[in-house]
Amino acid sequence: MALFKTAFNKLKQGLAKTRSGLVSGLRSVLGGRALSAELLSELEAKLIQADVGVATAAKLTQELSDAWKAGKVSQGEQALDYLKQRLAADWPDHDRRLRYAPDGGGPTVILIAGVNGAGKTTSIAKIAKSLRDENKSIVLAACDTFRAAAVEQLEIWSGRLGVEVVKGQQGGDPAAVAFDACEAAVARGADVLIVDTAGRLHTQDSLMRQLTKIKNVCAKKIPGAPHEVILVLDATVGQNAITQAKVFAEAIDVTGIFLAKLDGTARGGIVVAIRDQLGIPVKFIGVGETPDDVEPFEPGRFIEALFAE
Amino acid sequence: MFDSLTDKFSGLFRKLSGRGKITEANVREAMAEVRTALLEADVNYGVVEQFTQRIQEKALGTEVLASLQPGEQMVKIVHDELVDLMGPVDTHLMYVQPGPTVVMMCGLQGSGKTTTCGKLAAYLKKNGKSVTLAAVDLQRPAAVAQLETLAKQVEGDMPGPGQVHFYAEPDKVAEYGKAVGAAVGVARRALDAAKKNGSDVLVLDTAGRLHIDDALMGELRAVNQAVTPHQIYLVTDAMTGQDAVNSAKAFNEQLELDGVILTKFDSDTRGGAALSVKHVTGKPIKFIGTGEKLDAIEEFHPERLASRILGMGDVLSLVEKAQEQVSEEDALALQEKMAKGKMTMDDFLAQLKSVRKMGSMKSLLGMLPGVGQQLKNLDLDEKELNRTEAVIQSMTKKERADVTLLDNSRRRRIARGSGTSTQAVSQVVKGFEMVLKMSKQVSSMGMMDRMKALTGMGQMDPAAMGGGGMPGLPGFGSGKKSTKTQSRFRQRKRKSR
Ligand SMILES: Nc1nc2c(ncn2[C@@H]2O[C@H](COP(=O)(O)OP(=O)(O)OP(=O)(O)O)[C@@H](O)[C@H]2O)c(=O)[nH]1
Ligand SMILES: [Mg+2]
Fold it and tell me: Does A150 map to a domain?
């Protein structure tokens, strides 16, 4: 997939700086040390500091401790490999790939949701650009009819990327926009329809119901749609993301996570807990503000970065 | 999620009661619980370490060991210490003479700066100040248009005598990285414009940026130098996790912040980020954002956040939330009806609807002390509430006014109309009668007693609270507004989105 190729190149450039910091961080924690109770609790602290959460961090550390006592790991470096393998097993490759509509059954519909300011609209620009670069034709649906200038924001991206956008009335029914967008995408024979939605807190019941309605409209208009339901999470988010993921999953059956803003100092460790407790995989990571700043999620590298200084 | 520290403590210390003295080991065990609670609330790891150390020292003093109720005593110490750390709060805004007072918002991407600028403008307008909103975010697509829309909304829809102006230079907008530095000139000219139009306050909305982005942080320092804001606020997402300290520290070091505004507090986050940010910057948390509407900004109350961090519920917020939904006149009218046992199904439906507008039942009940813990086992079905609404809506006007009319044939018709069963209809009626009875009792109480009655719900059988799909919060909005809990810049009745 070209998406992964372009992303991979980007990743090599972009991650140089993270990597140097990361290696030194790892070295300081694990390098040349035999595994011990003390080292285990240092690792646990690192996990908590990366927002993995108390419960999941304790669980992982316990597993590691069991492996240590069973003689399976003895050195600090091995501990990291152990964790990497253990978590990578939770994130198999097929989990991380985008799911498309079957041939002839298109367009593929990708529904994007998340709390306010998570990075939804920017992430849509990123996904749209990667797919466009694969010569896929794309339609965007501006279903955020609520936030001031949300439509304009998506329109600017559509203009810069040269993809189409379907919009409705400011303050209008977002499900109606989804309806029109589905029709337009089918009529134009588009490959992919990406649906932007208004940011909403998962505590707002009526807004969550509205999201379900948007999803149902897509399902009604296009068989099998939406093929992907992506929850955008801000990498700086704390333990509340678990509830977020749970409630969004209940409302719209989330199929994957786009972890935005990983270019900061936050580690986004909460996705480990979400994977553990809810089984939702991460599909992409966002590493900047331009449409090129997207990478496929790589469990191994991600886990190393959790322990970086 | 709603693990209540209080519950844990009481469990821990109950084991010991009757066996005489609480030992040091017991206190240490309790401290482990405190630590976990704080970490689960997203308080920064380093901050937690220091904090628990301090608490432990305090607790090991005679206070807890000698206390008859060590669990409660312990909670009190932790709670007070949290309040101390986050307070005191000074929410007054400083105005300079002659104006304009320059206020600059800064923060990470997506933290809520632009919306907060709009809210601040609404607040100022209400207080008779004229304000210029200036779009200094030249980077995020449509950021200028967003602020312009908000400025118009404040001008047109929000109450108050103040004037609202908008300043922007849309031609300076450019793609990411290409407009760095241009913000300085725009800010300078915005200040000129604000002086000219006689604004009392100039609010600068800056682009979101990472604290490790040297170019953009440099730009912010340059803006700071160019217009020397009187107040610089860091806007932080209340749901932020462990990283909150890193960004807050960097912004504070480079800009010398005056205060912090926490946004998205209407989520169910425990809000530990507040503690972390206060701890590393030493700067007060001034306001919290509690919704997307322009009036959804409140003063910060450390006591409430302390309770929330400890999972002890937040009765005051709940009472306030209820008050928002019902106007005082409506509330008084209803209260009278209730006291006389004359509440009708229509009133009940209205109550149910306003309660539901406040959020999901679960999140609401989670705010009550002691209830949080029990919610784990309680499946409060929102669908059940939908059904209740449907049943009432299928009744005729007459039936709603007088439920005694509801014979079996009527019940069958209602069941058909609402797509439910006659049992469901009967359940609704029974529940209503129960509420009627309870509301008579509740409305004869004073405000304090009512609060006590509410807190007492923590000890109630959860089944009784969800029973029959009834919200179990009868006449909830009917309290007279207590001025203490009512923030001063909030509209009484809020349209729901
Ligand atoms: N550094 C960085 N910034 C990002 C990333 N993704 C998004 N942003 C920025 O975060 C801010 C908010 O992004 P939006 O895409 O508008 O977020 P949203 O979820 O659509 O916001 P609402 O629609 O208002 O809820 C913008 O300033 C984006 O440029 C990322 O991966 N890294
Ligand atoms: Mg958006």
Answer: yes
